[in-house]
Amino acid sequence: MSMVKDMKKNGYTTMQLLVVIVVLGIFTLTLLATTSYAYKDHSGEYYKEKVTVIEKQATLYGESLPELKEEGNKVITLDELIESGYYVADNDKGDVIDPRNDKATLNNLKIKLSYENEIVKAKVIEES
Prior knowledge:
Layout: H1 2-10, H2 14-35, H3 43-63, H4 66-71, E1 73-77, H5 78-83, E2 97-98, E3 101-105, E4 110-116, E5 119-125
Antiparallel strand pairs: 1-4, 2-3, 4-5
């Protein structure tokens, strides 16, 4: 009983306060480390992934074009891929939204198809 009276009279010791502050600090750092990645802007990474998928689908489309074997090179747009059924638009209007800018579309994105050594390659032409 006398111990309870001493704590009420003197409050918490410096050591007890330091332990609480250190524990709260460790908890805060752990929480920040695990949640800070969720708030980063990943639109650039998502754009690169979208371009990779577009290039793969354009390669499949190029393999179905007999004139590509004769010409060697051809430039198409993403709209052509959508119309031919090789890529699915993001909405009912037929738009492919640019993840870097939600108000822009990628429908006019140009893709170069090339045919060399029996292999079709597709590369998105970056416009600056």
